[in-house]
From TrEMBL:
Keywords assigned: Cobalamin biosynthesis, Glycosyltransferase, Transferase
EC number: 2.4.2.21
Keyword Transferase: yes
Top-level taxon in the UniProt lineage: Bacteria
Protein family (similarity comment): Belongs to the CobT family.
SUPFAM superfamilies found in the cross-reference section: Nicotinate mononucleotide:5,6-dimethylbenzimidazole phosphoribosyltransferase (CobT)
Lineage: Bacteria, Bacillati, Actinomycetota, Coriobacteriia, Coriobacteriales
CDD domains cross-referenced by the UniProt entry: DMB-PRT_CobT
Pathway in which this enzyme or protein is active: Nucleoside biosynthesis; alpha-ribazole biosynthesis; alpha-ribazole from 5,6-dimethylbenzimidazole: step 1/2
Keyword Transferase: yes
PANTHER family documented for this protein: NICOTINATE-NUCLEOTIDE--DIMETHYLBENZIMIDAZOLE PHOSPHORIBOSYLTRANSFERASE (PTHR43463)
Reactions performed catalytically: 5,6-dimethylbenzimidazole + nicotinate beta-D-ribonucleotide = alpha-ribazole 5'-phosphate + nicotinate + H(+)
Pfam family, one: DBI_PRT
Protein name: Nicotinate-nucleotide--dimethylbenzimidazole phosphoribosyltransferase
Length: 350
């Protein structure tokens, strides 16, 4: 694990200050773009340049299955993950259509689907063909969790090597809002009632089963927040592990990443706990409707520009924010200045 985080440098705060100065010189109200302006400044720091260009980007979608579905925590069975994998390859899912609008290629990666999809376009290596039921014991061995983390790291590094200057990760795996809720309880110190939501859609009885499954998983496995990899192995899954590695890989390559929803955020928090400097490369996209989302964003120290009640996953939130970031970058790069307009610049008034 140490080898994956040793090369992460702190973002360049001088570039962030230079980006803020350029915004302040633009002929518009100071801080007029709000969080979007702050995000462009974060991009400058992460990229290590005041010349922000995020046109080369990529969405990686990690696919994995979770044994906890045996507890009736989802409307769907594990066979749906393989169906969606094929739909991703056909570029016909919601995330693919949104990615097309955002000019982002989509790369599906199998890190642990129960049913293998044999297609040369599907990347990755599965740590295991579906995890074990976390209500009966750990989801993964520590070695399997580390394997999935490394697969995510490799995916980010490959995208960066191909020229990507902005990355995003999504996931698809039936049952993963349950594992996310369990990890949120461990890392953020919240109770199952505060972490568990309806996911892809549960009635009251299903929601109660899900809460009980999360509570049981914590009782059976007794995961420790200080041992992040151990916690992922105990109550997480291959998709979360891979996304954690993806965020570490992006930071190691000096490439910023846009987070997605609650599953993405718990993976990002894992990455931050393993390597605090990795947080400087992260941007929030939206506040998921899942209960743990705001808590996780607070733990990450991030604020999201979009609060649209989304709870879809697959990277859709990240794709939704990209056009907003593109627009903010255009303002940053090309807005006329106060000086060019012959206007007095705005001043910060107390």
């Amino acid at each position: 694990m140490q080898g994956l985080v040793a090369g992460v440098a702190a973002p360049d705060e001088e570039c962030a200050r230079a980006a803020r100065a350029r915004f302040d010189a633009a002929a518009m109200p100071l801080g007029g773009l709000g969080l979007l302006q702050e995000d462009v400044q974060r991009l400058a720091a992460a990229l290590g340049t005041r010349d922000v260009d995020i046109s080369a980007r990529c969405l990686v979608v990690f696919l994995a299955d979770n044994g906890v579905v045996a507890q009736g925590v989802s409307q769907s069975g594990q066979e749906v993950t393989a169906i969606v994998a094929n739909n991703l390859l056909a570029l016909s899912t919601s995330s693919c259509r949104m990615a097309a609008c955002a000019h982002a290629p989509v790369v599906p990666v199998d890190v642990g689907m129960a049913t293998r999809v044999r297609d040369e376009r599907l990347r990755g290596r599965a740590a295991v063909r579906g995890t074990r039921d976390i209500t009966r014991g750990p989801a993964l061995t520590r070695a399997q969790a580390l394997f999935a983390v490394r697969e995510g790291y490799i995916a980010a590094s490959s995208c960066a090597a191909a020229g990507a200057r902005l990355l995003a990760a999504g996931e698809m795996g039936i049952g993963n809002t349950t594992t996310t809720a369990a990890l949120a309880c461990v890392l953020a110190g919240i109770a199952p009632d505060e972490a568990v939501g309806r996911g892809a859609g549960l009635d009251a009885a299903g929601l109660e089963r899900k809460r009980l499954a999360v509570a049981r998983s914590l009782e059976v496995n007794d995961p420790c927040a200080r041992d992040v990899v151990g916690a992922i192995a105990a109550v997480g899954g291959c998709d979360i592990a891979a996304m954690c590695g993806f965020y570490l890989g992006a930071a190691s390559c000096g490439v910023p990443v846009v987070l997605d929803g609650v599953i993405s955020c718990v993976a990002a928090l894992c990455a931050r706990r393993l390597c605090p400097q990795a947080a400087g490369y992260m941007l929030a996209s939206h506040v998921s409707q899942e209960p743990a989302a705001r808590v996780l964003l607070d733990q990450l120290g991030l604020r999201a520009p979009i609060a649209a009640g989304m709870h879809l996953g697959e990277g859709t939130g990240a794709m939704a924010v990209l056009p907003l970031l593109d627009a903010a970058v255009e303002v940053y790069r090309g807005c006329i200045t106060f000086e060019q307009s012959g206007m007095d610049a705005y001043k910060v008034l107390e």
